[in-house]
Amino acid sequence: MKRVLKWVGIVVLVFATLAGMAWYSVFGGNSAIVDGELVPGAHTVKDGFVSAVVLDAGPGKVALIDAGNDASGKALLAALAARQLGPDAVAAIFLTHGHGDHTAGCKVFPGAQVYALADEVALVGDAAKAVHPLHDGEITRVGDLRVEAFAVPGHTRGSAVYLADGVLFFGDSAGATTEGKVTKAVRLFSKDSALNVASVKALAIRLRPRSGEIKELAFAHTGPLQGFAPLEAFASQQP
User: Fold this and answer.
1) 165: left (phi over 0), alpha (psi -120 to 50) or beta
2) For the whole model, what pTM was predicted?
3) Which of 6, 73, 81, 114 shows a CA-CA span of 20 to 30 A to 205?
4) 3-state class (DSSP) for residue 69
């Protein structure tokens, strides 16, 4: 019996080691999520291994970029409460894509209008009633807030990047390394990694004439990067 338990322990240890190595190879070089203000009017909310963003949209009104991994919305509700706001203050949710760690909290905010790219609505499914299918380049106004949507297919078919308050919100379409570089979406969880890279590079080229508008690059699973330069550097990389 002791021999059996010993071998079971060895097998468990081997699997745990392999799992740890796999995790580190995917996430080990990423910068940590920073919970707090990105720029005035934009606040990152850490929800475990992912983040969402609260954007000011006028007195007593906010919009969200994604809705987190927690179906109870605990972290988002706490962030709202710190502003003396409740769930009814959320006027809109802009989904970067339809994976569950970005849509789980949507139902906590039944009064919010949910936006996603038209190509992503099917993947969002029942997690949220995405009643506002967006198209590339479309601009939406929520109170005082202006949100511009860009199509960046690859991580998912309808992945979006949003520009609001001088911040580019990438969701999972890119991330930041501890060295301050932009990195592509995680291949393991992406529909088409090559398309993801091409889409992000194309976005950088497209926004190059507007680079002065970009104050921050924000990512769902890592910390942010300042300015347009890291995205420019990513676009300049060889295939």
Assistant:
1) left
2) 0.89
3) 114
4) coil
**Superfamily of domain 31-236, CATH level 4:** Ribonuclease Z/Hydroxyacylglutathione hydrolase-like (3.60.15.10)
- State the burial class of residue 119 (Cβ atoms within 10 Å of its Cβ: 0-12, 13-18, 19+): buried
Q: What is the percent of the chain where pLDDT is above 70? A: 87
Residues belonging to the chain: 239
Q: Amino acid letter at 149?
A: A
CB atoms within 10 A of CB 31: 19
pLDDT single digits (tens) 95-119: 999 999 999 999 999 999 999 999 9
| Cα–Cα distance measured from residue 16 to residue 22, given in angstroms and rounded to the nearest whole number | 10
- Beta strands across the sheet bearing 132-134: 36-39, 42-47, 50-56, 62-65, 90-94, 113-117, 132-134
